[in-house]
Request: fold
Amino acid sequence: MGGVSKKPISNVEKRIKKQQEEQQKTSKKKSSKTGSEVISKNIQISDDMIRKIQEEIKREKMITPYELATKSNITISVAKRVLKDLSSQGMIKESFRNRRTAVYINPQA
Reply:
């Protein structure tokens, strides 16, 4: 009955585990592929990146977050946020929205 009990962790292993947990708590900041810091949901993108994205959108008739992410070398979540912001500014227009993705069109093209 009961089976084999687990062996206790040595003091050295406990100390290492505690240090790793403290490092995880202190390293809350992450970096995105663009190089800007990403802190929780506040996404910071440089102005140069936004200008490049706007030029890319001007060339295309329609664009999806996946296309923008692959061309600009950013994550899809960042691409979604950028497209949503540009849509609210009136630079692009949302043509179609599904529960998974959205398709945006360029009204100037």
